[in-house]
Automatic annotation (TrEMBL):
Classification via InterPro entries: AAA+_ATPase (IPR003593), ABC_transporter-like_ATP-bd (IPR003439), ABC_transpr_FbpC (IPR015853), ABC_transpr_MalK/UgpC-like (IPR047641), Mo/tungstate-bd_C_term_dom (IPR008995), P-loop_NTPase (IPR027417), Transp-assoc_OB_typ2 (IPR013611)
SUPFAM superfamilies in the cross-refs: MOP-like, P-loop containing nucleoside triphosphate hydrolases
Family: Belongs to the ABC transporter superfamily.
Enzyme class: hydrolase
Primary gene name: ugpC2
Keyword set, alphabetical order: ATP-binding, Cell membrane, Hydrolase, Membrane, Nucleotide-binding, Transport
Domain ABC transporter residues, every copy: 9-241
Matching CDD domains: ABC_Carb_Solutes_like
Keyword DNA-binding: no
GO molecular function, one term: ATP hydrolysis activity
UniProt key word Disulfide bond: no
EC number: 3.6.3.20
GO cellular component: ATP-binding cassette (ABC) transporter complex, substrate-binding subunit-containing
Name the UniProt record assigns to this protein: sn-glycerol-3-phosphate import ATP-binding protein UgbC
Amino acid sequence: MAKITLSKLRHSYVPNPSSESDYALKEIDLDWTDGGAYALLGPSGCGKSTLLNIISGLLVPSEGQILFDGKDVTTLPPDQRNIAQVFQFPVIYDTMTVYDNLAFPLRNRGRDEAIVKERVMAIAEMLEVTNLLTMRAAGLSPDNKQKISMGRGLVREDVNVVMFDEPLTVIDPHLKWKLRSKLKELHQRVKATMIYVTHDQTEALTFADQVVVMQDGLVVQIGTPVELFERPAHTFVGHFIGSPGMNVLPCELRAGQPYIGTHPVALEGPIKGDAIGKTEVGIRPEFVSLANSGLPATVTKVSDVGRHTVVECEAEGQRINAVIDGVGPAKGSAVHLAFRQDQTRLYVDGWIATEAAQSATETKTETEEQAQ
């Protein structure tokens, strides 16, 4: 296991890049601590597979360094980085038994057979495939094949990092939740550094302690699942995470006050800087409520999604979603929308431009300090 450091990392598939647009991977600086669970999340083409290939050694970056526990491995090939990788399609030997598949990475490195048996049995128990050890892999179901592929990555105790590249894509939807929970359980038990690449927000948020959200080769935010949901640093994060995604509403600043049409909007805190550029108000549907006063709107659609109701409205020419409990108003109803102030933020050119609201505890502490 290892701490992984990416220092001033950039990559271009163009031989002589001359502008930022030539880089498939914009500059990245980050640290992943030893034993952590991390996810690279973003749509196809955002650069996450490029980054994974650079970390694994399949690709040498145009600029920057990759460090494992402080050792520069930037130019080392994959076999010298001591990593394990689980791919989208299971990598197993169909003619071998499950036991021999799990044992192969250890036998290939000349480990004593007693150690091989100990590790295989331990991993098989974790994966709940002990009863399959004598079966040939060709007869396994797709989810069990992927389990064995995961086990081959986890069976070695000396790996620096285990990387998962879209490992659940080919798994039936009703089996995905089982493998997601199993993978999280495995991480908690083996304590290996794990990096999970996916375009699926549910997979990333349920697995990782820290999620790296990418767009167009740029890391737009790194944070816990809670941080990404509650305080998106960029409108892309707000759109990409959550269902429905964050409401992003064009606004006009008048004397430092944002207006949606003719309606003023109260923000979570002061605006940072000059706020010059494209200005938008961002608020998640979970923090929009139907009230007696607020932004006048008309209900255009009501969707009962089981746990709650999504009310789609139109106000000042903009579509705004609200998530409420209970039965929603009828389509065509005139309503007022209230925005929860501590969850209402200004974004300038996509980036958050308001200071975070103080919690009640912080406010109380500050008041007590001033009084002393």
